Amino acid sequence: MPLALLALAIGAFGIGTTEFVIMGLLPQVAAEYGVTIPAAGLLVTGYALGVVVGAPLMTALGTRIPRKRMLMLLMGLFVVGNTLSALAPGFGLMLAGRVVASLAHGAFFGIGSVVAASLVAPRKKAGAIAMMFTGLTVANVVGVPLGTYIGQSAGWRATFLLVAGLGVLGLLGIARLVPERPAAEGVRLRDELAAFRDVQVLLAMAMTVLGFGGVFAAITYISPMMTGTAGFAESSVTWLLVLFGLGMVGGNLLGGIFADRGLMPLLYATLGGLGLVLALFTLTAHHKIAAAVTIVLIGGLGFATVPPLQKRVLDRASAAPTLASAVNIGAFNLGNALAAWLGGLVIAGGHGYTAANWVGAALAGSALVLAVVSGALERRTPAAAEPVASPAASVPAAAGTDTAR
């Protein structure tokens, strides 16, 4: 694999750390600013919404900027946001810093996926995308627990300064290792928007929302579920999240390998398996060992869908893939927010914490249905298997811009 993928993975590691580490530092942040825990939770919600909005916005603004330079600008924005969060004298500025950092998230992964895929031969695209996303998954195994420990020991501001430093490291790596990728000549914003006329692109994004939503319907409430139902001590929750992160790493890497061999069969297997495991979690959540094993499986099956879904969008929108790729990253976060809300509804209705797992199973099952529909449409209409064309696709200079040689 090209060294450029390492630079992209470092950036992804920093982004993954800042996205999730706040969850372990909410009590410290709330205490310093004198706000309630629910109010401090806006730091999580604001980040997620910033990703959803920022993914298409920042990608559209950078349509004519060479991709390497755009990745560097996004890492710079990420550094500014985290530095602002670390130094913010008031809660409002802290929230603003979180939103600023989040604006870089979706566009970085969207553009980074396009660049990663362009660095390797076509048969290895999903593997290259998975390698970049490994930074995000490893962040949940190393970055989040370490950042939480540092925040609890040296103060939460130290954590965000450290994350800003990771952003600087990622920026320097991109500047040194990522080859120049000029903006696609002849591709305009309306060409990028044309990808959304392809029903297969829309189906892939819907699968992203529902499938990933299934994961986070359960994981969002993992702490009260494991302490209140399985009987784990509060101190054990960190290690359970590490197990989830290990599952994410393994699932992401295996998803990258098998998506290059059989993308749709992999989606059928992982989404079906995810729905089954989430349904079983309503039972295994009552037993410590079974619950721990289930958490690993949820992380593995959930993140095994990331490379194939991202590759599916890239393949279907190959003439102008950047915006579609970034919007699909926003779809992951939309799934997180939707699932957390639905899971909260059933819990608030008095059905218990494990009821959120049924919500997750229903969402994953719905994603599987969409995958079957997508596969059936593709088999029934062979012409639909061709990617969306754009005016730029007929221009030789543009067509070769990001194709691996």
UniProtKB/TrEMBL annotation:
GO CC field: plasma membrane
The transmembrane residues are: 41-61, 73-96, 102-121, 128-150, 156-178, 199-222, 237-259, 266-283, 289-309, 330-349, 355-377
The alphabetical list of record keywords is: Cell membrane, Membrane, Transmembrane, Transmembrane helix
What does the UniProt entry say about where the protein is found?
Answer: Cell membrane
* Topology in membrane: Multi-pass membrane protein
Note whether Transferase occurs among the keywords.
no
Supply the CDD domains for this chain: MFS_NepI_like
Q: Which InterPro entries match?
A: MFS, MFS_dom, MFS_Efflux_Transporters, MFS_trans_sf
Which PANTHER family would you find in this protein's record? CHLORAMPHENICOL EFFLUX PUMP RV0191, PURINE EFFLUX PUMP PBUE
Indicate what this protein is called per its UniProt record: MFS transporter
The taxonomic lineage of its organism, from the top, reads: Bacteria, Bacillati, Actinomycetota, Actinomycetes, Kitasatosporales
